[in-house]
Amino acid sequence: MFQELNEQIVSVKEELKRKKKLTMQLQDYQSELSGVENNINRLSSQLTEEQSDVEKLEGVSLTNFFSTLAGTKYEKLKKENKEVLAVELQLEESENTRDEIKSSILDLQDKLGKLDSSEKTYNDLLAKKEQLIKETDNSYANELYDLSEKEGDLQAEIKEINEAINAGKRAESALRNAEESLNSAANWGTLDMMGGGMITGAVKHSKIDNASNEIHYAQSRMREFQKELLDINEMVHVDMDISGLLKFADFFFDGLIVDWMVQGKINDSLNQVQDNLSKVSSILRKLDDGLSNSERKLSIIKQERKSLVESFS
Fold first, then answer.
1. Which CATH class is domain 1-137?
2. DSSP secondary structure string, 227-278?
3. What is the location of CATH 1.10.287.1490 in the chain?
4. How many CB atoms lie within 10 A of CB 248?
5. Residues 174-216: pLDDT tens digits?
6. 239: left (phi over 0), alpha (psi -120 to 50) or beta
7. Which of 176, 181, 212, 303 is least crowded, fewest Cβ atoms below 10 Å from its Cβ?
């Protein structure tokens, strides 16, 4: 009876830990969503202004007439159209990010809804156990429960570390794909600078489009990794500003599209991706060490529990 009750308590306690973790993730997503929506509002206003500037240049006015005569109108129009394109791409990226975050929030709310009764169940089980202890005064049961609880805590810890490791590996893989795409764009950009012609320039732009998609995907995987790390410091000391993991893609999308024919900008983005690859790899090594440590502790607790059961008569 005691062992069955202990196992139920340990199981529900694991649910409570998961509920705490999911609540932290939900709050972080909601905070991030607020920032993304503010950015969308800012970019929408900026896009309206940029489009207005283009319309003015395309319209008929005395200023436009003299600009045309002076040969500056088309340069101005080209510049304004580039700025419109840059804002449109940044806005599209932010809207995609918003939609992904909203989807994650709905998923977390659904998971949390299924854990609503966990706290009541846990308290009911504790009350039942307390009554049973009073009736039997079994010190063996208490010792067994303590070991079962430690075992359950370590199993939950190992599960969370593994989830963080898997998320980190997905982020690492996505970053490597982004790195490969940017390397390809950089190589074609070098040919373009050497006078590769229209075909080379078109291929380079295609490569940069592909790199944009890979960077967006990598950013999404980095966001998932960052959320998995929110409560991991209680188990593994990561010693790194994990909020910074969400900022690398901003470097690529924030105004770089205007200058994407400038080779240095491609190389700068490549450096950012490689820097984040290094950070993710470093965190993964620490998580692997933490996992090994927790697994060793679990093995010891299991042996202690087994010895206690074998010695009971």
1. mainly alpha
2. HHTTTGGGTS---S-GGGGGSHHHHHHSSGGGGTTSHHHHHHHHHHHHHHHH
3. 1-137
4. 21
5. 999 989 988 887 665 444 444 444 444 444 456 667 777 888 8
6. left
7. 303
Q: Which residues in the chain are classed under CATH 1.20.1330.10? A: 144-313
Which are the contacts of 27, defined by CB distance < 8 A and separation ≥ 6?
A: none
Q: What residue has token string 């840059």?
A: 86
Whole-model pTM: value is 0.73
For 8-38, write each residue's pLDDT tens digit.
Answer: 888 898 899 899 999 999 999 999 999 999 9
Q: Identify the residue whose tokens are 């050497």.
A: 194
Give dist(CA 277, CA 37) in Å, integer: 28
- On whether the CB atoms of residues 161 and 191 are closer than 8 A, the answer is no
- Sequential DSSP letters for 77-141: HHHHHHHHHHHHHHHHHHHHHHHHHHHHHHHHHHHHHTTTTHHHHHHHHHHHHHHHHHHH--HHH
How far, in Å, are 26, 151, 219, 229 from residue 111 at the CA level?
Answer: 11, 24, 23, 18
Instruction: Say which CATH topology domain 144-313 has.
Output: f41 fragment of flagellin, N-terminal domain (1.20.1330)
